[in-house]
Design a protein that fits this description.
By secondary structure, this protein is mainly α. The protein has helices at about 5-20, 35-50, 60-70, 90-110, 125-145, and strands spanning about 115-120, 120-125. The protein has one domain: Four Helix Bundle (Hemerythrin (Met), subunit A) (Up-down Bundle), CATH 1.20.120. A two-stranded antiparallel ribbon has the order 1-2. A hairpin with a 3-residue loop joins strand 1 (about 115-120) and strand 2. The longest helix has 18 residues, at about 125-145. The protein is globular, with a radius of gyration of 14 Å. The protein starts with 6 loop residues before the first helix and ends with a helix.
């Protein structure tokens, strides 16, 4: 299971981030590459508790949704929270550097510390947040061929 706290997983994701080009085109979806980086940064910042968003209403119990998100393949085009919807354009390199810094910050936070509540998946521990972040990064890097 990939996690940002696993040095090999983290290094692979960071390498893939560094290979991205500002001209990269999505294989699916509507986001531009700079918007995708901004979107990833929002997710990492939420996971770290830099800001909170309201709890989301879900059609299934949070515990089940958490299992689906953490252990099943992610489909393309799943709706995202309004707080993570990229509408404006962003500076590609600034967003990439911010993403790398947020990855490092996530990896430095002890997994056994308090991580809080995810707006869609409910209460999660550090290992779950680390896995969710790695899966989210992987999903969008694949979206842009990295």
């Amino acid at each position: 299971m990939p996690e940002l706290h696993n040095p090999l997983d983290r290094a692979s994701l960071e390498t893939r981030l560094r290979t991205l080009s500002p001209k990269a085109q999505p294989k699916w979806g509507r986001m531009t590459v700079d918007q995708m980086l901004w979107h990833l940064n929002q997710g990492l910042a939420i996971n770290l508790g830099h800001f909170t968003v309201p709890m989301k209403k879900l059609p299934i119990p949070r515990a089940l949704m958490r299992v689906v998100a953490l252990y099943l393949p992610w489909p393309k085009g799943v709706p995202t929270a309004p707080e993570m919807q990229a509408k404006a354009r962003h500076d590609f390199e600034a967003e990439r550097q911010k993403c790398l810094a947020l990855i490092a910050e996530t990896a430095q936070k002890p997994q056994d510390s308090t991580w809080g509540t995810h707006p869609a998946f409910g209460q999660m521990n550090g290992a779950q947040f680390s896995r969710l972040a790695a899966l989210h990064l992987d999903h969008h890097l694949r979206q842009f061929g990295a």
